[in-house]
Amino acid sequence: MQMARKGSSIRLSSSRISSLLLSMFATFASLYVAGRLWQESQTRVHLIKELDRVTGQGKSAISVDGTLKIIACREQKKTLAALEMELSAARQEGFVPKHPEHTDGTETKKRPLVVIGIMTSLGNKKKRDAVRQAWMGTGASLKKIETEKGVIARFVIGRSANKGDSMDKSIDTENSQTDDFIILDDVVEAPEEASKKVKQFFAYAADRWDAQFFAKANDNIYVNMDALGSTLAAHLENPRAYIGCMKSGEVFSEPNHKWYEPEWWKFGDKKAYFRHAYGEMYVITHALARFVSINRDILHSYAHDDVSTGSWFVGLDVKHVDEGKFCCSAWSSEAICAGV
């Protein structure tokens, strides 16, 4: 009898212990689940706040799509910051065109239509004076053309082989009076340097002016500003236009020939030039001038500047515009240029 009571007491005690352990386990489990739910709710609140901050759409329930948006925004922010750093470095290197200068806090100056580089030589003052008198102007009239027509014209010249000599000083004196030169100090003024001179002009002008077009001209032509403006206006929508009197022709390998090309062998067995703008004047767009500026150190120069310029655009997606108005032959009201 006592043994039965003792066994019953042990079973009751064991049952109470099991119930107590079960209750403790349930309590701990409840606390664990409540803790996880609280943690998840805090995470949800944080993500909602992040989504609200990033998207600006107000309070809304977070979703997987919303979480992915937050992650994507964070990644885009990092990418944008990296691109801004690269852009800043590119600007410092001159790979990106500068913004137009501001006239006040809100408005900007009108973007120039074209910068004309007039190739001239050390002894050509009479030709320069004729150009100034015929179409380019000086002083206030030069500035008026820039303001009203968006045409910036400058004589382009290198330095004497004997730097600092009387010819260099004469150019410096002339420029102090007219302020209409681009003087390329790293170019020697010589016929064999003509291609380098044109290349350096395009590079210098593209770095200085945010113009739509850049033109090379010689100092022995008259330029019709109105005809030039209307012709270029027709090509404003083409970012990579190369405009001029186009031709392709024979490459001369005889050293005594006027148009001798020392590197004639590069043009194949038929010795024929590729299509290029020749003559006294041709035009390239801003994007092409920037291309020349960026790659000036690796662009090859041939004996003649027009051939060299054409060679720089071979292989590029460039629109070659054969415009007879640039052939500078007989003068007419529609012609862009003619001899003076």
Automatic annotation (TrEMBL):
Q: List, separated by semicolons, the cofactors it needs.
A: Mn(2+)
The biological pathway it contributes to is:
Protein modification; protein glycosylation
Principal subcellular localization: Golgi
Q: Looking at the UniProt record for this protein, which Gene Ontology cellular component terms does it annotate, in alphabetical order?
A: Golgi membrane
Q: EC number(s) for this protein?
A: 2.4.1.-
The organism's place on the tree of life at top rank: Eukaryota
Q: What is this protein called?
A: Hexosyltransferase
Give the organism the record lists: Arabis alpina
